[in-house]
Automatic annotation (TrEMBL):
FlgD/Vpr Ig-like domain mapped to chain residues: 450-502
Native organism: hydrocarbon metagenome
InterPro entries: FlgD/Vpr_Ig-like, Pectin_lyase_fold/virulence, Secre_tail
UniProt cross-references to Pfam families, sorted A to Z: FlgD_ig
SUPFAM superfamilies (UniProt xref): Pectin lyase-like
Name of the protein: FlgD/Vpr Ig-like domain-containing protein
Lineage: unclassified sequences, metagenomes, ecological metagenomes
Length: 515
């Protein structure tokens, strides 16, 4: 199962050491900021007979600092849709439901084909402050949605609602916030599967804050594979993350602060982390459940626990079933329970704890939004979830980096060690994707304790980036290169060579960065 299948760019035939790469033609359509412009450009991109024009390779490009008021729900029935933000610095463009006659607006997106949105601020709150229940409503089988480098903010029920089966959801290098309200705290979800089976879920290097329910809600369907790595999760009321029945899970290097902070009744199964065993028919087919749970910090502020009524219990990290499974794999003691103070954090939701158990309280309190909203324009991140370098969490990840999203520290996800199997040979694998933009993953294996050096060179043989220069234990490793040099400068398009050198092994491979 491949992690994140990115698109290829430009039709070219390039010979790299005898290897031919055929790249797809990219067609970039610039969309001017304005009312209904995004709707009109996408809807009008057809031939005279109504057929889509090269949808597989078309990218709709938004302006930095742009404001896109939608005049209706954008849906892509039977074709892939890519909405990306122009490269360069500047504020993310805002995509917001516009209000028409009669004060009515429509939800933002209803994907019915693969969908990739990159670099945008998207809200389900319309220009009059009315919040739609869903931001992305996936309404076809077997489709994939990627939210990359986005801020997804404000929804009443869920960010992603999956009405159909075997969908995949990727949230990468993004911020997802403000889902749900205390008028209906059972809502307020990140992904809601509605009881449908999910193919893939990937949350990576992202931040989730202010959810009344949970960032993933299991409604009875199974998940084939989930990867939840290097995420910061703050202020989630009922639970934290609920996988339910899942075949394969990677859950590591995450920071969960104040999750399941409402507490629970004695009969409730609420917890910060929930996994269920596979059902009998899958077990009978020989399907095995594989859980990798490593190097995570779960912490809830005592002020929130103390605010819970006497009849309410503090929620555990794991419910009974999950706790049994975690004990079976032997990594429960690997967890941290460390207090974390962020650089600029939302106020502790003590009043939400009290109101959750007392519906006579009016008006209903809400999360500290930090003054955020689609109107705040120039400063689109009201909080800063960096934390002190003196904490154990700062170096506790499997690769020695901080737990949680690394975006708050200006870092990229580093070397990640596979502890499950010891390789028998030295290997250096092909990077993926290749060609790439903006980042690519490099994997390698060392069968014994080794001095490992992994560097990237330009076509002149000059060192561009040193990725690894240390002693490493036997294992399989992967890391991401984001196209920057050792001094943090974005490198130009071109051919690059990555070289792995140990005491007993040396290998090089070629890759291409295309912008």
């Amino acid at each position: 199962m491949n992690f994140n299948k990115f698109l290829l760019f430009s039709t070219l035939l390039i010979i790299l050491g005898g290897t031919s790469f055929i790249l797809a033609q990219s067609r970039f359509i610039e969309v001017p900021s304005g009312v209904g412009t995004l709707n009109e450009v996408i809807a009008g991109d057809t031939t005279a007979t109504g057929e889509r024009i090269d949808p597989e390779n078309t990218v709709y490009v938004l302006e930095r600092y742009g404001f896109y008021l939608l005049t209706g729900t954008i849906s892509n029935t039977g074709f892939p849709l890519k909405i990306w933000t122009a490269e360069g610095g500047g504020t993310k463009p805002i995509i917001q439901p516009g209000v028409g006659e009669g004060g009515v607006s429509s939800p933002p997106f209803r994907p019915r084909g693969d969908f990739h949105i990159k670099g945008a601020y998207v809200t389900a709150m319309d220009e009059l402050g009315q919040t739609h229940t869903v931001m992305f409503r996936l309404s076809a089988d077997d489709i994939k949605i990627i939210a990359e480098d986005c801020h997804l903010d404000y929804t009443g029920q869920s960010i992603f609602r999956l009405d159909n089966k075997n969908n995949s959801v990727y949230v990468l290098n993004s911020v997802v916030s403000n889902s749900g309200s205390m008028a209906s705290p059972d809502n307020g979800r990140g992904i809601d599967d509605r009881g449908n089976d999910i193919d893939i879920v990937v949350f990576e290097n992202s931040t989730f804050y202010n959810f009344t329910s949970r960032i993933l809600r299991d409604g009875g369907g199974k998940i084939n594979y989930a990867r939840v790595v290097h995420n910061t999760v703050v202020n989630v009321g009922q639970m934290g993350i609920s996988f339910g029945e899942i075949i394969e899970l990677e859950f590591k290097n995450n920071l969960f602060v104040n999750t399941s902070f409402f507490g629970k009744r004695s009969t409730s199964a609420w917890s910060s982390f929930d996994v269920l065993p596979l059902r009998e028919d899958l077990v009978n087919q020989g399907v095995e459940q594989k859980l990798t749970i490593l190097n995570n910090n779960f912490y809830t502020a005592p002020e929130l626990i103390n605010a819970q009524p006497d009849s309410i219990l503090a929620s555990p990290i794991f419910n009974a079933v999950s706790d049994s499974l975690i004990n079976a794999i032997g990594t429960k003691d690997n967890l941290l329970n460390e207090a974390i103070t962020f650089t600029d954090q939302p106020a502790l939701p003590v009043d939400l704890v009290v109101a959750n158990w007392d519906f006579t309280i009016t008006p209903r309190p809400e999360f500290d939004r930090g003054g955020g909203g689609p109107e705040y324009g120039g400063v689109q991140l009201p909080f800063n979830f960096a934390y002190p370098t003196s904490t154990a969490s700062y170096t506790y990840s499997t690769n020695g980096q901080p737990l949680g999203s690394l975006k708050w520290f200006g870092m990229v996800v580093g070397v990640d060690e596979n502890l499950d199997e010891v390789p028998v040979n030295f290997t250096l694998e092909n990077n993926y994707p290749n060609p790439f933009n903006p980042s690519t993953v490099i994997k390698y294996s060392v069968p014994e304790l080794s001095n490992v050096n992994l560097k990237i060179y330009n076509s002149l043989g000059q060192v561009v980036k040193t990725l690894v220069n240390t002693t490493q234990a036997a294992g399989s490793y992967s890391l991401q290169w984001d196209g920057t040099s050792d001094i943090g400068v974005k490198v130009s398009s071109g051919i690059y060579i990555y070289r792995l050198t140990t005491d007993k092994f040396s290998a090089s491979k070629k890759m291409m960065l295309l912008k």
